[in-house]
Amino acid sequence: MTSLSAREALVVPLKASPERPPAPVEPVDIVRCAVFSSAGYGLAPLADALAGGAVGARDTAAPAPPGDWPPAPGTSPVAGFAPEGVLGRKGLSRLTRTDQLASVACTLALDEPAVRSAGIGPGDTGIVLGTSVGSTRRVGEFIRDTFVEERPYFVNPSHFPGVLMNSAAGRAAIRLGLTGVNATVSGGPLAGLNALRYARNTLLAGHARRLLTGAFEELSPQRAWAWHRTRGLVAGARLGEGGAVFVLEAPRTGRPASDVPGEGPAPLARLLACEVGFADPDRGLTGVSERLAACLRTALERSGLTAGDVAVAAPGACGRRGWAAVEERALRQVFSRLPAGEQPHRLEVQPVLGETDGAAFALQLAALLARWQHGGPHTRRERAAVLTSVGPDGNVGCAVVVRPPE
Length: 406
Hints:
Layout: E1 2-4, H1 6-9, E2 28-37, E3 40-41, H2 43-52, E4 75-76, H3 84-87, H4 97-110, H5 113-116, E5 125-131, H6 136-148, H7 160-163, H8 167-176, E6 182-186, H9 191-204, E7 210-217, H10 221-230, E8 239-240, E9 242-249, E10 269-278, H11 285-303, E11 312-314, H12 323-335, E12 345-346, H13 350-353, H14 360-374, E13 384-390, E14 395-402
Parallel strand pairs: 1-6, 4-8, 5-6, 5-7, 11-12, 11-13
Antiparallel strand pairs: 2-3, 2-9, 2-10, 7-9, 10-14, 13-14
Helix pairs in contact: 2-14, 4-8, 11-12
C-alpha cells in the first residue's frame, strides 16, 4: 500500500507545441459506479436531485460527539447511510466515517453480478482512492489527545490507523481480499482526478486488470467549522460529504453491447484523457484560467475531439468563493467560438450536493453518469463531456469522458 502526494504521483505535462501535437490516448472503460451523496445511494437518486436542483430539506448537522463540538450551520450529510447493513457491526466503531464510506462503496461496486462474471481475480483487482487528508475528524481528535491527556503518549492506539491517509484504501482492500495495486493520492479538490489519472496509467501499463477508483470526504465538525470560520464558500453554499467509486477496466476488443456472462459488464462511459497543470495564483488568477484552458485543449486534441463535440461541461468550483469565476473563464476560452445554441450544458454539482473537497471530482463524474443513465430522453444525444477542477494552490485539471457506442 502506498500513499502519494499529488506532486509525487503526477508529472505536470508541458504545453504542447504546434510541431509536436499531443499523442493520442487509449480509452479506459468505466463499467460500474457506487456513489454516496446527500441525495442517497446510487445514480438514480442523484439524477433526481440534479433534475430538481436540490436534495430536499435535510439540513442535518455534521456528526459530532455529545458535549464536544456544537453543530456547524449549513451541512448536508449522506442520506440514509447505514454501514452495518453491509459491513456488519463487528469492528465498525474502529473505522472512521471515510473508511466506512469507502468500504461500503467498494463492496457494493464489486457485488454487481455483471462485475463478478468478468472472471478477474483479486490479484488483478486493486484500489486507488483520492483524498484531501483522510479522516479530518480522526486526525483532529488524535492530535487533540496528545495535548489534553496527562501524557502525550496516552492516546488511544486503536485510533492511530484512522489517522493514516491510506486507511480507507487499505481497510477496503483487506476486507474484500484484494491483493492488487493499492494507492492513495492526495490532492485537495483535484484528488478524484489525480486518482483517476493514476488508475488509468496503471491499467494501460498492465499493472492491473481492474481498479476500484474514486474519492471520499467525510462530514466532521472539525471540517465543517474550518470552512465556516474561513468563509471559503459562496453565500448560501452548503458543506457536504460522500464520494463515489468507479470500476475501471482496460477496454477489451469485441465487447458486446449488453452484459454477457463471462464477458464482463458493458461500459457506462469511457475515460479518454486526464490532463493536469499548474499556475501560480500569486501571479494572477488569469494565469490559472489560461492554464486550465490549455489543459482542456490538450485533452480534447488527444481524445480526437473538438469543442463542438462536447455536450456537457461539469465544473468543480461552483461553491468556492472566487474560484468559480476562474473556472468559468477557462471554459469560455475553450468554447467561446461556439454558437449560443451549441454551448455545452453546465452540470453544476456543488449547489445540489454541497462542497465536498477531495470527493468533488468523483461526484462530478458520478453526476455525469447519473445524467446519462437516468436523465431522460433529452440526454441521449450527448456523446462527450469534460469535467474540470481547480485548486486554491493553482493546480488545475480536466478529464474527457464519452458515452460508448450503443
